[in-house]
Amino acid sequence: MALSLPSSSSFNTSNALAADARSLDRLKFAAGSSPEATREAAKQFESLFMREMIKSMREATMKSGLLDSAQGDLSTDLLDQQLSVQMSGQPGGLSEAIARQLSQVMGGAAVQLAPPATLSLATPVLRTQATTPTLPAGGPAPQGRDDFVEHLSATAERVAQDSGIPASFMLGQAGHETGWGKSEIKNADGSSSFNLFGIKAGKGWTGKVAEVTTTEYIDGTPRKVVAKFRAYDSYEDSFRDYARLINNNPRYEKARAQTDSATAYATELQKAGYATDPAYARKLSGAIQSALRAMA
Fold first, then answer.
1. Is 216 a known active-site residue?
2. At what angle do helices 70-87 and 35-59 cross, to 10 degrees?
3. Contact in structure between 137 and 100 (CB atoms under 8 Å)
């Protein structure tokens, strides 16, 4: 019986990535940029895992010797490659679990998609450069100052390098707005909106929205009101949106000029109307100092 092999044109980019473990290094940098990129990275890693598992199963099977040759081995390898691509990314498969773990750790630790030379069912498929608490998919950041800062510090540092806003300032403000993770803004289904900075969804916002009851100070008196807040796909999206708001909105120009002083920065944010709480500057300054101590 003739062995039907896939033509070279049938091997698209996905096939090439599945065959080349080093290509996953390129995917890891894109994995946190969008849910689609995260799912693609997870699918490719599952495909590589499946290919190695199929290979191990073939090697454990006694060969007949009839088709043993270099050409036969190449044909088998190409077939295994095609099978691994077709089997990956299925609903309920390994890629979904990998995608969930990627989404969780991208918020606070750099993901290392570097598979070992030999894969087996007992080999962990993901490793992170920092120990991160295991969280449910779409769940909140860890509660408590130290865990909150540890979980999000890597993300804050990345955004700080691009925006010029100190990581400690952003972590402190995120901690103040969420009570160090204890009172995150939730979506209607109870999942996290990933909004760490209490940024509202104004008329110009075209993204997702979380509608919640919050406290606003009207004429100095705290009142409960229903407000619409921006919702994101990840904590990094929240950090980057906050950085864009501070850097691109003229009303925060004076705050941008005070990034060498937590007290001055917080004071200018309050003057610019970032929050209605009359004690916001004092509270925010204290939260930034607390974040600095946690990062030390």
1. yes
2. 140
3. yes
Residue 232: how many CA atoms within 13 Å on its side-chain side? Answer: 24
Encode pLDDT of 174-225 as tens digits.
999 999 999 999 999 999 999 999 999 988 899 999 998 877 787 777 888 8
Q: Encoding tokens for residue 51?
A: 């290919």
Across the chain, the runs of DSSP E, i.e. the strands, are 111-112, 127-128, 208-218, 221-231
Residue indicated by tokens 């619409």 = 228
d(CA 6, CA 77): 11
Range with top average pLDDT, 18-27, 78-87, 189-198, 221-230: 189-198
Q: What is the C-alpha separation between 32 and 105, in angstroms, rounded?
A: 9
d(CA 270, CA 280) in angstroms, rounded, equals 6
**Do β-strands 111-112 and 127-128 pair in parallel, antiparallel, or remain unpaired?**
antiparallel
Q: Is 241 in the active site?
A: yes
Among 1.10.530.10, 3.40.50.2300, 3.60.20.10, 3.40.390.10, name the CATH number for the domain at 145-295: 1.10.530.10
H-assigned helices in 60-208: 70-87, 94-105, 145-163, 167-178
Annotated domain spans of the chain: 8-128, 145-295
Distance between CA 11 and CA 7 in Å, rounded?
A: 8
Out of 25, 36, 73, 216, pick the active-site residue: 216
- Please identify which of the residues 241, 253, 260, 277 carries the catalytic annotation: 241
136 by Cβ neighbours in 10 Å (0-12 / 13-18 / 19+) ranks as exposed
